[in-house]
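wait is this the right file?? whatever heres the structure
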């Protein structure tokens, strides 16, 4: 809706009329739209890229159907800015696990955040987690084996395959008889994403953590502090996260710089 309104506003200022045909769209219009996003709406680059992708889908459809002769996006690229993921250190994760909370709902929010920190599940995948997604291998070990919601929605298929450690196992056991779990057939009770993030903001403050916590920080924490920092291979982390390739996982290894630290510690030993 926001993208639609912006396009509508630029049509009025750029063409001085209410509406245009696809044939009237041009490279200049796309540039004018970009300027409107930046100057008038003061949007961040990541939001601009998202809006441009949305609008480009429509123009591509029109171009492929012959409704326009020239692709207005030809020669233009809008790249998402690189950003380092926010994650918790081991000490910060321990602080979250041990902080004293006053309400039942805040305890649930904390437990579910910690569960995702030790499983790497995205919020929507944790919300959809069913008991049938928890399987036992030939050695009696329990695993989460689940199709990722994001890729399923996009028409692809990739499975998150995660062995369960003691902490997430204890959380599953804690909520197995929760009324919501029984009623909805889910493995853990979850609030909506916005409610969870509101609780996490308070929990972070109580735990003395000066970082913006969201449900996705838990996934980043699993990838960095829980796995890569403990020498789990990039390939195995990628499989557990349900990534389609290790390229999607590499930015976690980049931000951690674990191998750099290890190599420099060896240098210090040799120098001394």
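ok assuming it is, sequence goes like this
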């Amino acid at each position: 809706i926001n993208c639609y309104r912006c396009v509508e506003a630029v049509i009025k200022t750029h063409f001085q009329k209410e509406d245009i045909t696809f044939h009237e769209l041009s490279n200049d219009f796309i540039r004018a739209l970009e300027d409107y996003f930046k100057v008038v709406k003061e949007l961040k680059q990541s939001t601009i890229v998202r809006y441009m992708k949305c609008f480009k889908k429509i123009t591509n459809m029109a171009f492929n159907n012959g409704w326009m002769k020239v692709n207005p996006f030809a020669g233009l690229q809008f790249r998402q800015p690189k950003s380092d993921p926010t994650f918790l250190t081991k000490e910060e994760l321990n602080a979250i696990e041990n902080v004293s909370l006053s309400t039942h709902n805040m305890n649930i929010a904390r437990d579910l955040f910690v569960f995702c920190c030790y499983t790497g599940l995205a919020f929507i995948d944790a919300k959809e987690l069913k008991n049938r997604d928890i399987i036992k291998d030939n050695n009696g070990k329990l695993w989460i084996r689940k199709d990722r919601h994001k890729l399923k929605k996009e028409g692809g298929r990739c499975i998150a395959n995660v062995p369960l450690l003691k902490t997430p196992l204890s959380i599953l056991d804690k909520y197995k008889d929760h009324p919501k779990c029984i009623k909805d057939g889910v493995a853990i009770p979850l609030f909506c994403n916005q409610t969870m993030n509101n609780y996490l903001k308070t929990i972070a403050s109580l735990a003395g953590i000066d970082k913006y916590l969201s449900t996705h920080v838990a996934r980043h924490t699993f990838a960095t502090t829980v796995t890569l920092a403990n020498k789990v291979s990039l390939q195995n982390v990628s499989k557990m996260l349900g990534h389609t390739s290790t390229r999607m996982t590499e930015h976690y290894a980049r931000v951690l710089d674990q191998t750099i630290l290890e190599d420099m510690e060896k240098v210090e030993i040799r120098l001394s």
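The first helix runs from residue 2 to 15. so i think its the right one actually
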